[in-house]
């Protein structure tokens, strides 16, 4: 219970701290919340964080971890911090802004939808979902539902929500930052699949043969 409470506090406090980045980028609380799209973006961010608190996702190294893949977390951390501040700052100063207020709302919708897609697999996997590339105690494969079509629905949600976030600020630089997240994400996927193949052998190989990584018919 104590560790769950600590994780909840860490998640909510971290989300509030992250929201401070675009607020700073936009020059303060009042300017940031002057547009309804940014208000809803902030509300969606906090709502997703509150829902995440009730999941069993963790950062446990479990029974076996690929520690060599931890560099990906550092890469996501740096790019995530930049994506938190730079697109909002670009929006404020009008640097390389993609045209149209409609794009803001498309971005908000993508962020919220991608965030839901990111979280649903966390609830499906429960304690098997870790922020590290690791095999958890009692680890079993899930091959039905979302996982019956794509093997990494949470990562697809991550990409969609990341793109939605920067589009909510109409930031061309933000789109580039999102694209820069793809190489470490692919590295993460390959590390996870290698780990699962070593753990489950032919069972995982057969599952991998009939599914797509993230986008059916594409990847």
Count of folded domains? 1
Q: Indicate the structural class.
A: mainly alpha
Spatial order of strands in the largest sheet: 1-2
Strand count: 2
What is the level-2 CATH architecture name? Answer: Up-down Bundle
Q: Say what the CATH topology is.
A: Four Helix Bundle (Hemerythrin (Met), subunit A)
Count of individual helical segments: 9
The separation of the N and C termini measures 40 Å
For the residues shown, what is the average pLDDT? 94
Strand content: under 5%
Main pleated-sheet profile:
2 strands, antiparallel
Radius of gyration over C-alpha positions, nearest whole angstrom: 18 Å
- The run of helices and strands is HHHEHHEHHHH
CATH structural class: Mainly Alpha
- What gross morphology would you assign? globular
- Helix content, binned percent: 55-70%
Uncertain runs: none
Organism: Cupriavidus yeoncheonensis
Membrane topology: Multi-pass membrane protein
Protein name: Isoprenylcysteine carboxylmethyltransferase family protein
GO cellular component, one term: membrane
Describe this protein's structure.
This protein has nine helices and two strands, in the order αααβααβαααα. It has helices at 2-25, 29-32, 36-53, 71-93, 101-125, 153-167, 172-180, 182-200, 202-209, and strands at residues 64-65, 134-135. Helix 4 (71-93) runs antiparallel to helix 7 (172-180). It starts with a helix and ends in a 10-residue tail after the last helix.
């Amino acid at each position: 219970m104590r560790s769950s409470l600590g994780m909840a506090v860490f998640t909510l406090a971290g989300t509030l701290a992250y929201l401070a980045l675009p607020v700073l980028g936009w020059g303060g609380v009042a300017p940031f919340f002057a547009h309804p799209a940014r208000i809803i973006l902030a509300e969606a961010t906090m709502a997703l964080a509150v829902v995440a608190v009730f999941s069993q996702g963790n950062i446990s190294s479990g029974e076996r971890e690929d520690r060599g893949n931890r560099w990906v977390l550092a890469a996501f951390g740096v790019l995530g911090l930049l994506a938190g501040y730079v697109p909002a700052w670009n929006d404020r100063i009008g640097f390389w802004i993609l045209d149209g207020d409609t794009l803001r709302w498309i971005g908000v919708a993508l962020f919220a939808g991608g965030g839901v897609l990111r979280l649903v697999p966390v609830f499906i996997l429960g304690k098997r979902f870790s922020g590290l590339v690791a095999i958890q105690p009692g680890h079993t494969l899930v091959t039905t539902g979302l996982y019956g079509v794509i093997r990494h629905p949470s990562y697809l949600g991550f990409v969609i929500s990341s793109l939605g976030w920067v589009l909510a600020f109409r930031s061309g630089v933000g789109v580039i930052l999102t694209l820069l997240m793809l190489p470490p994400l692919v590295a993460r996927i390959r590390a996870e699949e290698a780990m699962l193949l070593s753990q489950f052998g032919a069972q995982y190989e057969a599952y991998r043969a009939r599914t797509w990584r993230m986008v059916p018919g594409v990847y």
